[in-house]
Structures are given as structure tokens and as C-alpha cells.
UniProtKB/TrEMBL annotation:
One of its GO terms (molecular function) is oxidoreductase activity. This is NADPH-dependent FMN reductase. The lineage of its organism: Bacteria, Pseudomonadati, Bacteroidota, Flavobacteriia, Flavobacteriales. Its EC number is 1.-.-.-. The keyword tRNA-binding does not apply.
Length: 178
């Protein structure tokens, strides 16, 4: 009987079409071993604004679906830019919808911030995901600064140090499950 593939939900914090963050998630997805099945979540911009009044009693259908995708995955990959020294509002909004749940508790997670600087946004991402109970460590999180000069138009990684860092990250993320 064939073994079941490890399901990974990949979330980009960028709403830009064909962003560097999306390309990085595709790169990782293409380099994960055959034991993994990666689903890209590309609807982050369509999630309604967080509203605590409808968080637990009657969440919007889009939120039920989003939470379900996280819950049904074996792990989550997040790759995000930094906007104004912070997380993009769309990603922060999506994560706020998860605070009242336990869907990230001990969920194996890989976290990447890929931006011009990214330092402040990365710190915030790590803090939020730690607060949500996600399971990650120094080997399954990565900051890529100056990303626009490191990812080509077709999604190829054109900077050797970045390529090596992503290969190490991917290997470490895989080892989370094996």
C-alpha cells in the first residue's frame, strides 16, 4: 500500500501577483522530496477583516475554509514580505483569525521573511507564530534580505548564497517530518 504524502499548506504574505515570496514557495515546493504534497493558499487578500464578534460563534465561510486547510495540513510554510517594518496587513489579518483556535498548536511550521530588509517583520512573524503555538526552530525559519536581486523573473534563485540557504531550509523543514 502506498504511503500517504505529507500535506503542506504554503501561505504567501504578499498579495502581489507572481511575487518573490510566491516564487520562493514554488521553489521550495519543487525541491521537497516526493513524500510531500504542497498546496498553495493564494486567497489571503480575499479573507474578510478580522472581527472578534464573528470569530467563534459564526465565522465567515472563507475563514472556516482557511482554518480547515491549516487544520488538515501536516505542516505550514509561510513566506512573507515586510511592509513598513511590519507584517503585511493581509497576513496579520489571516493569522488573527487563528488566535482563538488551536490549529497552529504544535503544527510543524516553516517561516521565511523575504523583503528589502525584513528584520522587523521577521521578528513579528516569529513572535506571532510562537504565540499561536506553531512548532519551528532556528533551522526552520529564514530571513532573506534584498530579495528582489536574488530571485529571477521566472522564479529561479539567482544568488548562490540564497540558493544554499533555501536548500538548507528545505532540508531542515523536511527533517521536521521524517
Amino acid at each position: 500500500m502506498p504511503s500517504t504524502k505529507i500535506k503542506i499548506l504554503a501561505i504567501t504574505g504578499s498579495t502581489r501577483n507572481n511575487s518573490s515570496n510566491f516564487k520562493i514557495l514554488q521553489y521550495i515546493s519543487n525541491h521537497l522530496k516526493v513524500k510531500f504534497e504542497v498546496e498553495m493558499f493564494e486567497n489571503i487578500a480575499s479573507l474578510p477583516h478580522f472581527n472578534p464578534d464573528s470569530d467563534t460563534e459564526n465565522p465567515p465561510q472563507e475563514i472556516i475554509l482557511f482554518r480547515s486547510k491549516i487544520e488538515q495540513s501536516d505542516g505550514v510554510l509561510i513566506c512573507t514580505p515586510e511592509y513598513v517594518f511590519s507584517l503585511p496587513g493581509s497576513l496579520k489579518n489571516a493569522l488573527e483569525w487563528c488566535v482563538s483556535t488551536t490549529i497552529f498548536s504544535d503544527k510543524k511550521t516553516g517561516l521565511i521573511t523575504a523583503s528589502a530588509s525584513g528584520e522587523m517583520g521577521h521578528k513579528q512573524l516569529l513572535l506571532i507564530m510562537k504565540t499561536l503555538g506553531a512548532k519551528f526552530d532556528n533551522k526552520t525559519q529564514l530571513l532573506i534580505q534584498g530579495v528582489r536581486g536574488k530571485v529571477g523573473v521566472e522564479g529561479e534563485i539567482i544568488d548562490e548564497k540564497t540558493k544554499e540557504a533555501l536548500q538548507n531550509f528545505t532540508k531542515n523543514f523536511e527533517n521536521h517530518f521524517l
